[in-house]
Amino acid sequence: MKEPKEVMQILNIDHLGIVAGIIDEMELVEEVNKMVGIKTRENLTSGQVVKAMILNGLDFLSVPLYLFGEFFVGKPTEHLIGEGVLASHLNDDKLGRELDKYHQIGTTKIFTAVAIKAAHKFQVEMDSIHLDGTSMSVEGEYKKEIEEIDETKQEIGENKLEIEPEMKAIEIVHGYSRDKRPDLVC
Question: Helix 46-57 to helix 92-105 angle, to the nearest 10 degrees?
Fold first, then answer.
C-alpha cells in the first residue's frame, strides 16, 4: 500500500527573508524583549512585533496601520517572525498595545540600545558621535480668509469655505532658536 504524499505549501517571502535574517543576526528581538519584558501568556513578544513592523515597513506597499495584520496573510510568519506566530496574531490591537509599551520605555532609548547592539555585532567602527542640533521654530498664527459660497444661506451659516492665502517663502534669519533661552541649551 502506498503512503499518502505530503502536501507542500509554497509561500512567497520576496526580500523579507533577507531582512528577517539580518534582524535575527543582530539579535534585535532579544534586545527589545530585554528592555520591554516578556509576558508568558502572549502569542508574540514585543521584539517580534518590532520585527514585524520592520518587515511591513520595508515592503513595497504602503498600508495603513489598521491593515497591519492583512500584510502578513499568505506570508510564512513562522519562518519570518518566529515559531508559532500566525498572521492572525499580528493585528492592529496588538500593534497599538506594543506601541504604547515602546512609548513608556522611550523609543529613543530602545533605538539606541538596538543600534549599539547592531554596531557591536557587525563590528562597525565608531570613531565619532554626531548630534544634530538643528531646530526649526514657527511664530505667529496662520491667517485664513473666509469666503461665502452661497450668500442666500448666510443666515444659516452653511457652506463656508476656508481658503489658505498664497504660500510665502521661508525667511532665514541670523540667530538661533535657543538664543536667550538658557533652559534649552544642551
Answer: 110
What global pTM score does this model have? 0.64
Phi, psi of 98, deg, nearest 5: -70, -40
Give dist(CA 93, CA 99) in Å, integer. Answer: 10
Helices (H), 40-106: 46-57, 68-71, 77-80, 92-105
Contacts 24+ apart (CB under 8 A), 178-183: 178/135
CA proximity to 86, closest of 97, 75, 77, 96: 77
Q: 22 or 182: which carries more pLDDT confidence?
A: 22
Q: Check residue 12 and give its pLDDT.
A: 75
Average pLDDT, the chain: 79
What pLDDT does 109 receive?
93
Quick check: 53 and 80 in contact, CB under 8 A? no
What are the φ and ψ backbone dihedral angles of 109, each rounded to 5 degrees?
A: -65, -45
149 grid coordinates = 459660497
Predicted confidence (pLDDT) at residue 93 exceeds the cutoff of 60 = yes
Of 63-67, 119-123, 180-184, the poorest mean pLDDT is in 180-184
Q: Rounded distance, CA 132 to CA 96, Å?
A: 30
Cα torsion at 48, 50, 55, 56 (round to 10°)? 120
